[in-house]
Write a structure and sequence with these properties.
alpha+beta; Jelly Rolls; 11 helices; about 45% helix
Length: about 250
């Protein structure tokens, strides 16, 4: 459950997987600053076309009026929320003037501190302790520095892979579209995301298949083709390997 403080501030836990599931693959836009701190798991979010892969220990700040879409998430634990400039005691922090999304890593004791602080802020929200919430945001915003983002090739690759316009392609096809070799694409994607290019392709293919299977108007035979696998029997084996269910079983369980 999450509350708001006069609609100027809110914070809550990411532990509710159903809440995260509801947001996945849905475009939304809020007028306030949005933030998230991940303690476990990973999230791939797209902000105005820019891909941001969030790993444990990373804090993300997104300015208002940005188109945001959660492309992928797994085993997420942490916190997220939003705030308006009017809520802050001090709105002069450099990160608030950049107008760009930011992602920053906190390691070891610093990450533990940020996690504990945000847990305490959840309690302060219930207690309507505005002074503590403002002080907490001061501490966090004071440690953020503008400029954090993913390298160009991995970012563009993830944008292409999770595009809703096209079915996922092969590593070689993406490499050709990006003007690099398949080997380079694999190496740079692995370096920046800790997953291989084929891992991301399979994640995107599975996410798209689940979306299509949730729509009873889409025949299962068409789902395979629209996810880039023309062989329906291969698609069925792929889907069952990843989910433990056949496409039909998944559709009937939804």
């Amino acid at each position: 459950m999450r509350l708001n403080f006069g609609k100027l501030f809110s914070i809550g836990s990411l532990a509710d997987s159903k809440w995260t599931e509801a947001r996945a693959m849905r475009l939304y836009n809020i007028p306030d600053y949005a933030f998230s701190f991940l303690m476990e798991g990973e999230i791939l979010v797209e902000v105005d076309g820019q891909s941001m892969l969030i790993a444990p220990g990373q804090f993300v700040l997104i300015p208002g009026h940005k188109d945001i879409m959660v492309r992928y998430f797994k085993d997420c634990k942490g916190y997220d929320g939003k705030f308006s400039i009017e809520f802050l005691k001090d709105a002069s922090y450099p990160v608030l003037r950049s107008g760009m999304p930011l992602i920053q890593s906190f390691w070891f004791d610093d990450a533990v501190f940020i996690g504990a602080l945000m847990h305490r802020m959840c309690t302060a929200l219930y207690d309507k302790d505005k002074a503590f919430l403002q002080s907490g945001m001061d501490l966090i915003l004071g440690q953020l520095r503008p400029g954090g983002k993913m390298a160009a090739v991995p970012e563009k690759f993830l944008q292409m892979v999770f595009s809703r316009k096209d079915a996922p392609m092969s590593v070689a096809q993406y490499a050709s579209a990006l003007g690099v070799t398949p080997n380079y694409l694999n190496k740079t994607v692995k370096h920046h995301t800790h997953r291989t290019a084929i891992d991301w392709i399979e994640i995107a293919r599975l996410n798209l298949a689940k979306q299509l299977l949730r729509d009873p108007e889409v025949p299962i035979v068409d789902v395979a083709a629209r996810t880039g696998l023309d062989d329906q029997s291969y698609f069925a084996r792929f889907f069952k390997k990843k989910t433990g269910l056949t496409p039909s079983q998944f559709r009937n369980s939804e």
